[in-house]
Amino acid sequence: MEALECIKTRYSARGFKPKPIPRNVMNQILEAVRNTPSYTNTQPWEVVVVSGKKKDELSKVIFALAKAKAPTSPDLPMPKGWPAAHDARGHEHGARRLATLGIERGDEAGRENLRLLNFEFYGAPCVVFLFMDGSLEEWSIFDMGLFAQNFILAAHSQGVESVLQASLTNYAPQIKKFLGVAESKKLIIGISLGYPDNEAKLNKYRSLKQKPAEFTKWCE
Ligand SMILES: Cc1cc2nc3c(=O)[nH]c(=O)nc-3n(C[C@H](O)[C@H](O)[C@H](O)COP(=O)(O)O)c2cc1C
After folding, report:
1. What gap in Å lies between CA 34 and CA 48, rounded to an integer?
2. Which of 35, 91, 137, 191 is deepest in the core (most CB within 10 A)?
């Protein structure tokens, strides 16, 4: 797939076929993503790929926590709030996603079910967790973002769709324990991925984007 086409057609998928991602496809993705740039080539990323029975077991653990609204302990603090324009875009995203599913804004149970789908990895056959050393700071998080974006684009080029999930990081200590990852590591993001179920209602949803003129200033 041509690069511009790949960037333009990527979207967050939230419904998947059960078909596993073949190991050679995952290897191809990882082989491409290792070329990600990083601050002084420090390459902070540490990747855990979870599928099969382990993925199902992990889902059970974190779904139960999320359902019980257990206390959250993300390694990166969740945003406390947003400036008005960003907040408006976030609300618009939430409202249009609910509308796609026919869930009324006041339908607390419907909204809760939607939230909980995160912890079933939206039915994906695979979830990938990106960690970095606990001593690393902001610039390494920047590198992790580059890695995550390369990862989802490489996957998309292979017909594998994905969704980044900050929500999963709420249960970072439990995920690290389950995966045998040292407590001292920082969990940056979870990414559910697989072959998309194009019939899934949530996959009909597409987010709105700003036009370049809205975020670009030209100085000539
Ligand atoms: C850092 C980050 C965290 C995200 N966390 C979640 C999440 O927990 N659950 C979810 O369904 N989508 C999550 N998303 C996906 C965003 O909602 C999505 O990228 C955004 O609405 C734009 O839509 P698009 O990816 O289809 O272009 C996250 C995206 C990013 C970049």
Report:
1. 14
2. 191
Q: Where are the domains of the chain?
A: 3-76+84-215
CATH class of the domain comprising 3-76+84-215: alpha beta
Round to whole Å and give the CA distance between 144 and 132.
Answer: 8
How many degrees, rounded to 5, is the angle at CA 176 between CA 185 and CA 20? 115
Atom of ligand 1 nearest to the CA of 168: 8
Decide whether any atom of ligand 1 lies within 6 Å of the 93 Cβ: yes
What tens digit of pLDDT does each residue of 95-148 get?
999 999 999 989 999 999 999 999 999 999 999 999 999 999 999 999 999 999
What is the pLDDT at residue 105?
A: 83
- Rounded distance between C-alpha atoms, residue 148 and residue 189, angstroms: 8
The residues, any chain, with a CB within 8 Å of residue 125's CB and separated by 6 or more, are 16, 17, 18, 19, 20, 21, 51, 55, 194
